[in-house]
Hints:
The protein is an alpha+beta fold. The protein has helices spanning about 1-85, 125-135, and strands at about 90-100, 105-115, 115-125, 140-145, 150-160, 165-175, 180-190, 195-200. The chain has two domains: about 1-85; about 90-200, Sandwich (Immunoglobulin-like). The termini are far apart.
Amino acid sequence: MSDFSADSQRLGQHTHNATRTRIVDLPGNRMFRSLGIALVLSLATTAPVRADERDAMRGLDDQVQEVKSDVLAIATELQQLEEKLLFPSNTQVAVFVSLADGDALELDSVHIQIDGEPVAHHIYEFKELGALRKGGVQRIYTGNLPTGEHRMEVSMVGTMPGGSAFDETESFAFRKDVEPKAIDLTLARRTVGGVQIAFGAE
């Protein structure tokens, strides 16, 4: 009798707890449903704002690009002004390096002396060599020389397409007049082995 009474009490307590749990759960479910509806409404109301923000960001990007273009233009003008101040036209000498059209020489380095004084030394990276092979021209040196006769010595080190190394040095005489002087150095394979440095001056 006592066991049955105890079981009845436990059953009653369990039923009471289950009832209480259901009563507690019901408001919780309503709360979660309310939060879900609020979230959906929030997303719906913020979507147009985000679109406006995207438009504003695109407009800001356009303004940044315009500022960058202006800065680059100003930097170019300043560089040109600096060159005019540092290298006046009556003493200016510029030396350019290029590869002959279609030549697959691998240029490692170039060393230049003018009147016995080293003026330029450059070691080429892969991207630079690729640009030269595509017809690019590198300005390797800009400096000042007095009018009159001068001598340039050019040394170029690299590898032939077949894998054999070359180390070529040539000397050229040129005259510097009052006008700016531009010197073109073009590296090309010789018709019968080796390489040659073509000298051109304007």
